[in-house]
Amino acid sequence: AQSVSQHNHHVILSEAASLELGCNYSYGGTVNLFWYVQYPGQHLQLLLKYFSGDPLVKGIKGFEAEFIKSKFSFNLRKPSVQWSDTAEYFCAVISDSWGKLQFGAGTQVVVTP
Amino acid sequence: SAVISQKPSRDICQRGTSLTIQCQVDSQVTMMFWYRQQPGQSLTLIATANQGSEATYESGFVIDKFPISRPNLTFSTLTVSNMSPEDSSIYLCSVAGAGSSYEQYFGPGTRLTVT
After folding, report:
1. Which of A75, A10, A103, A94 is nearest to B92 (CA)?
2. What is the mean pLDDT of each run of 10 residues along chain B (115 residues)?
């Protein structure tokens, strides 16, 4: 079955620490990849996306993600987190024609001052 | 990006009743989607709603339980019928981006508690 796996369900780190969240998917063929973020009390927002081209994509708020096709991975990174990065992060994949987003389980990230 | 609103934002309902959730978009969109996010879990697609056609339901979701309307290009409703406590979830609508974009934009969600 097709699936999206996020390696960590809960991450706690201090401000200025580096963050990396793992995401792997099991689809073959062409994929479109996304990271969404849900800040406390807010709705789901698109953080960054990969469709094609440069496998290193940059998103909002200093986040970036790298698509490694051979590893079926799309890991999210930020070199130095802030308290305001406390949120839940979801990896999502579209593998077929238009619109069926498959989400990972999500990773709750807590950044302590 | 589209601006999406949902009503109600939250509700507490009794077992056996039904609730209709509204989703309004500030621009015309072809494709709208309804998702469910159960407590502690990720988002699961319920159905895709295109204007002028029947909604397409994902495996495990049926029209009798989750009837959907899509009367125009800016509005859709999802009804959760004959509710049970297992239906307690956040229900979200989303819309696809314009043109060739595969991006989806999400509404704020409706938090439903069934007692």
Report:
1. A103
2. 92 97 94 90 91 88 96 95 96 80 86 97
